[in-house]
Amino acid sequence: MRADAKAERETQIASAAYALMAEKGFHGLSMLAVAKRAKASNETLYRWYGDKLGLFRALIERNADRVADALDAALAERPDPRAALQILGPALLDMLLSPQAIALNRAAAADASNSLGQVLAESGRGRVFPRIAALFDDLIAAELLHGPAAPAASLWVDLLVGDWQIRCATGAMPVPDAAARRARAEHAEAVLFLVKGG
């Protein structure tokens, strides 16, 4: 299968999986139901993802790739590190508060085995956070922040996300609009530089 055809098929499978999760929850989702909804073969799903947990991991990785790509693009343009942080903040919130991320977090929260939460941590934060920490290395090297990088990056993520993701996942609040997400990113940056500034 050509790479572009495979990418299109993966998008169809992801869309089908998210639709079924919205209807039935993760535990009500089956590989066969996803295959039927995506008009793919069950064999293809098992060959590509292994099992339902593998499909869940692939969905998380697709979502995490969006932020990784945004950060990579910001760094490739070579703005100063603070400008890159200003690009990353709204992009990270967009990813974490997307319908896909909310669905994945709901599934992980409802999983009594905690295996989905582990996959979410490994394939989501585990892939994105090292890039964020690398950006914070640059901010510290430019003497814009005091180090070390990992705790400063964690503080920024905490300021940025707060309890928004869990409140959206539980339905306690609607997903904030783009203007509110931008304002939240600006506030997190301002507080970070007030607390950790060079």
Please describe the topology of this protein.
Blueprint: H1 3-24, H2 31-38, H3 42-49, H4 52-76, H5 81-96, H6 99-109, H7 115-141, H8 149-161, H9 164-169, H10 178-196
Helix pairs in contact: 1-2, 2-3, 3-4, 4-5, 4-7, 5-7, 5-10, 6-7, 7-8, 8-10
3D structure, described in words:
By secondary structure, the chain is mostly helical. It has two domains: 1-50, Orthogonal Bundle (Arc Repressor Mutant, subunit A), CATH 1.10.10.60; 52-196, Tetracycline Repressor, domain 2 (Orthogonal Bundle), CATH 1.10.357.10. The protein has ten helices and no strands. It has helices spanning 3-24, 31-38, 42-49, 52-76, 81-96, 99-109, 115-141, 149-161, 164-169, 178-196. The longest helix has 27 residues, at 115-141. The mean pLDDT is 89.
Keywords:
198 residues, mainly alpha, Arc Repressor Mutant, subunit A, Tetracycline Repressor, domain 2, 2 domains, 10 helices, TetR_C_Proteobacteria, transcription cis-regulatory region binding, HTH-type_TetR-like_transc_reg, Homeodomain-like_sf
Main beta sheet, described? none
Instruction: Flag low-confidence runs.
Output: none
- Percentage of residues in DSSP E strands: under 5%
Q: Spell out the helices and strands N to C.
A: HHHHHHHHHH
Overall domain count: 2
In CATH, the topology of the largest domain is named Tetracycline Repressor, domain 2
> How many strand units?
0
Work out the helix count. Answer: 10
CATH homology-level superfamily of the largest domain = Tetracycline Repressor, domain 2
The radius of gyration is 18 Å
Helix content percent band = over 70%
Shape, principal axes of CA atoms: elongated
CATH class label of the largest domain: Mainly Alpha
Pfam families: TetR_C_7, TetR_N
Keywords: DNA-binding
Domain HTH tetR-type: 7-67
DNA-binding region: 30-49
